[in-house]
From TrEMBL:
Belongs to the class-V pyridoxal-phosphate-dependent aminotransferase family. The keyword Transferase applies. Pfam families: Aminotran_5 (PF00266). This is Alanine--glyoxylate aminotransferase family protein. GO terms for biological process: glycine biosynthetic process, by transamination of glyoxylate.
Length: 400
């Protein structure tokens, strides 16, 4: 057998030195120093009594952030997509029908996951960049009698915040459907009241408005939703994300299921402590105030928002790309010249919008001034019809 040349040599890899970016895209956001410090604390076992106490604290803090009393509120070991798949893959059984929205990229992901769970998908239509209308949802539910209705509360691909959640929930419940909310870009940054709005299942990502590294993702289920999960006739297709098994670890028993990402749970705990210290309503107000300053600067500069004022999403600002400008070139120039991250559009809005986050620890006055200054400079250099100084002036005036 011929030995591969160099196979016994250790690879030469330099010390890790990633660039120091200002993260103002759709996620991740800047991580608070306290969260980074929490990640450097000593590792313990995932069944250590000290870690069990941390698990209890994280669950209680998550209930506060979700505004819920749901017993079954946990961080799923994985990114926000894992929490999404845990939600949909457990509440949608083979042969059941799930109603999903067409008004954004992540409604399409809901549909894909429901199909993989063995469900039949039907759609409720709305243009990209607009919310779902209550009447349209009511008609779709009457026509198709779904078992589960899903919607995206904060659509990261369009910058739209769904405004009529209580009404949507009421329509779905009147027909016996469970309600699943994608809160990935809203938890901790935009008003979200799971119990008051009668949402049965909500999931989120930690790397957005919670400003936590990805790896342990919030999920909450009502008693009714969990009863459905535990009464399933057929096991979910994912063993790892089977909530009936995870109940043994995150429930009263604390029995082994998998090795939890201990350091990520530390990080989530500290991020949620910051939420509780600030106060959830104060945090919602901060995001709206600073994103309002960002929006004022964008519009004063001469750019246009993608979403109308009545359903504008403060945590993710979708900005129309000016005529004659390549969005990818702008994003690259911002990285190279300013170490600043924003993002291009997804799906139907690919090439048509910039996506500018204003989330968590990134939602600070200096960052808002910085992103408007840098974006104005880059667009001006590229020949766009913008007034960078007017944008910065508007930001400063609004923040004051």
């Amino acid at each position: 057998m011929t030995e591969r040349a160099g196979s016994t040599d250790a690879p030469a890899v330099d010390e890790l030195t990633p660039p120091n970016r200002t993260l103002m895209g759709p996620g991740p956001s800047d991580v608070h120093p306290r969260v980074l410090r929490a990640m450097s604390t000593p590792l313990v076992g995932h069944l250590d009594p000290a870690f069990v106490e941390i698990m209890n604290e994280v669950q209680e803090l998550l209930r506060y952030a979700f505004r819920t009393d749901n017993t079954w509120t946990i961080p799923v070991s994985g990114t926000g997509s894992a929490a999404m798949e845990a939600a949909i893959g457990n509440v949608v059984e083979p042969g059941e029908t799930m109603l999903v929205p067409t008004n954004g990229y992540f409604g399409g992901r809901m549909a894909s996951m429901a199909r993989r769970a063995g469900g039949t998908v039907v759609e409720v239509d709305a243009p990209w960049g607009e919310p779902l209308e209550t009447d349209a949802v009511a008609q779709a539910i009457a026509d198709h009698d779904p078992d589960v209705f899903g919607f995206v509360h904060a659509e990261t691909s369009t910058g739209v915040c769904q405004p009529n959640v209580p009404e949507l929930s009421a329509v779905a419940h009147d027909h016996g459907a469970l309600v699943v909310a994608d809160a990935v870009t809203s938890l901790g940054g935009v008003e979200l009241r799971v119990d008051e709005w009668n949402v049965d299942v909500a999931y989120a990502g930690p790397q957005k408005c919670l400003s936590c590294p990805p790896g342990a993702s919030p999920l909450t289920l009502s008693d009714e939703a969990m009863e459905k999960v535990l009464a399933r006739e057929e096991d979910p297709r994912s063993w790892y994300l089977d909530l009936s098994l995870l109940e043994g670890y995150w429930g009263d028993e604390r029995a082994y299921h998998h090795t939890a990402p201990v350091t990520n749970v530390y990080a989530l705990r500290e991020a949620l402590r910051l939420v509780a210290t600030e106060g959830i309503e104060n945090r919602w107000e901060r995001h709206e105030r600073l994103a309002g300053a960002l929006k004022a600067g964008i519009e004063a500069m001469g750019l246009e928002m993608n979403a109308s004022e009545e359903y504008w999403l403060p945590s993710l600002n979708a900005v129309r790309v000016p005529d004659g400008i390549d969005d990818g070139d702008v994003c690259r120039e911002l990285l190279e010249r300013y170490d600043l991250e924003i993002a291009s559009g997804l799906g139907d809005l690919d090439g048509e919008i910039f996506r500018i986050g204003c989330m968590g620890h990134s939602a600070r006055p200096e960052n808002v001034v910085y992103v408007v200054t840098a974006l104005g400079d880059v667009l001006d250099r590229m020949g766009a019809a913008v007034d960078p100084s007017a944008g910065v002036t508007a930001v400063r005036r609004t923040i004051q």
